[in-house]
Structure formats: C-alpha cells, structure tokens
Design goal:
The protein has 286 residues and is mainly alpha-helical. The chain has two domains: 17-241, P-loop containing nucleotide triphosphate hydrolases (Rossmann fold, 3-Layer(aba) Sandwich), CATH 3.40.50.300; 242-276. It is 48% helix and 6% strand. It is built from eleven helices and five strands; from the N terminus they run E-H-E-H-H-H-E-H-E-H-H-H-E-H-H-H. The protein has a five-stranded parallel beta sheet, with helices on both faces. The longest helix is centred in the C-terminal third of the chain and has 33 residues, at 243-275. The radius of gyration is 26 Å and the shape is globular. Keywords: Membrane, Transmembrane, Transmembrane helix. The chain crosses the membrane at residues 249-269. This is Protein-tyrosine sulfotransferase. Pfam families: Sulfotransfer_4. It comes from Polarella glacialis (Dinoflagellate).
C-alpha cells in the first residue's frame, strides 16, 4: 500500500491509515512515523491543541459528538479529518466505531488500514494513570474550561462511557473499557484491514503490513517518550487549550517575583541593620 495523494473516488475520504489506539499506546510515535513514511499530514490531538480553542477544526468533532445518526456521524468525523492522509490518538480513537462504519458503507476506501496497538490493559494503565489520567487520582478534575469540557464530551465519555472517573477506585472500570475497545475493534474491522503494531516493532512492524519499503538507515525511527508526558497530553489533563495558558502562568510568576523582590530586599536591609554597630555619639565638649 504505497502512499497515494491522488483524488479518491467521489464521496470517499483520502485517509490511508488510521490509528485506533488510546493515548499512551504510542500514538505520537505512530503519527510521526506515518508523516516520515509519506502518509502525512497526520491528525493528532496536538493538531487541535495547536489550532486553539476557537479554531474551526473543533466544530465537526463537536457536531459529531451530538449526532445520533450513525452514518451522518461518520460523515462529520471524516469532515473533521479532511485534508489529512492519516490520523492517530484522540479524538479519533473515541470515534473508532464510526470510522469502521465509514469503511463498511463506502465512505472510506477498502484500502484504508486501521492500526491497533499491541498493549495490554495493564501496560496501558501503568502509563496512563501517571499522565493523561493523572488529574483523576485525587478525584474528578474540574471541568471549568471549554477545552476540558470538550475532552470530557469528545474523548472520555466515548472511551469510558462517562466524562469523569474517580481513580484509583475505578481503575478496573478504566482497564475494562480499554480491553473492551481492543476486542471490539478486532471483531468489527473488515478482514485484512487491521494491523497490530507497537512502537518497539519499529519500521519493520509498520512498513511490512502496510506493504511499503522500510526507510533507509539515514531515517531514524521517531521514538517518543515511553513514560513521560508530552505537552499536548498535559494540556489534555489540565484542561488547557494551548500554549497561551503556559504564557499566562509565566506572566503571573513574573508579577509575583516583582512583588516579592522589594519585600525581600527590605527584610534583608532591616536584618543587616540589626547586626551593624551604631557609630559612637559625638562629644560636643572635645
């Protein structure tokens, strides 16, 4: 399956490869690898985060989440992915059933391949609980921001069946949902369209099933963090929509420093005065 950028049959999407894995299953690595293999641009959660909360890219996802008709929902998901040759991570994984349905009804070509990660529920949770789910360890995260509400509606409710989890008490709920997702994708994907892959498989495990040659040695496999958290994932946890939130934190820290510096200087000056011997009084009779 060589990357092809020509026009698809009328009414069909140009998507060639779609990763259906949840966050913390190598989605960032997969996206970078697909870009390098010529299946780009690749859609990822960071695509939406970098676009900002007011971007029009969010609208088809919002509409799809509210749509009850299965085929119309699939059309909206494909509309959200228009202009991309591949996609991974969320919210894509949250609409996995709609994407499989899109292929079944001819909205996606039969040549489109779906990639499912080879990672157990226990392995996934061990990575996710310290990163994308970290905000739920002390209780459900507050959903004040528009972005956090979107994440609850577009991602968590579609993955877990609810917008919030209480961890670690509901660890089993999370792991069971992950395992069920893996089984359902395997059951519903059309024969010959599903590729099982993990980052440790490298180029060989990805290029072989896709029917393309591996890159030369000059193209390094794009390993990402294995247990750390990317900026996009941290933003997803804390409900921040883009880098402007980080800039605001930086500005707030700067203001705080500017307020504290005079206080520190004053305290230091007063302390020093207490340790300096006062000059003797002048004897006027001398």
């Amino acid at each position: 399956m060589a990357p092809a950028h020509g026009a698809s049959p009328r009414g069909q999407s140009d998507l060639l490869v779609i990763g259906l894995g949840w966050p913390r299953t190598g989605t960032g690595t997969l996206c970078d690898a697909l870009d390098l293999l010529g299946f780009g641009p690749c859609h990822h959660l960071r695509t939406l985060l970098l676009a900002g909360p007011e971007s029009k890219r969010w609208r088809p996802w919002d509409l799809a989440a509210a749509e009850e008709n299965r085929t119309r929902r699939a059309e909206l998901v494909l509309q959200a992915l228009r202009g991309f040759s591949s996609a991974t991570d969320v919210p894509v994984a949250g609409f996995w059933e709609d994407l499989l349905h899109a292929q079944a009804v001819g909205l996606l070509p039969s040549s489109t391949r779906f990639i499912l990660p080879r990672r157990t529920a226990a392995e996934w949770y061990a990575s996710a609980e310290a990163t994308v789910l970290a905000g739920w360890r002390e209780g459900p995260p507050a959903l004040e921001s528009e972005h956090a509400q979107r994440m609850g509606r577009l991602v968590w409710s579609r993955l877990f069946g609810r917008e919030r989890l209480q961890l670690p008490q509901e660890q089993k709920v999370a792991m069971d949902a992950y395992a069920a997702h893996q089984r359902q994708v395997e059951r519903l994907a059309l024969p010959g369209t599903l590729v099982h892959w993990a980052p440790e498989d490298g180029w060989a495990g990805l290029c072989g099933p896709l029917g393309i040659p591996e890159p030369g040695p000059e193209v390094a496999f794009p390993w990402r963090h294995q247990r750390g958290s990317s900026v996009a994932e941290l933003l997803a946890v804390h409900g921040q929509s883009d880098g402007s939130q980080l800039m605001q934190l930086g500005r707030a820290a700067l203001v705080l420093v500017n307020l504290l510096v005079p206080v520190v200087v004053l305290v230091w000056f007063c302390c020093c005065r207490g340790h300096v011997r006062a000059p003797a009084a002048v004897d006027k009779d001398d």
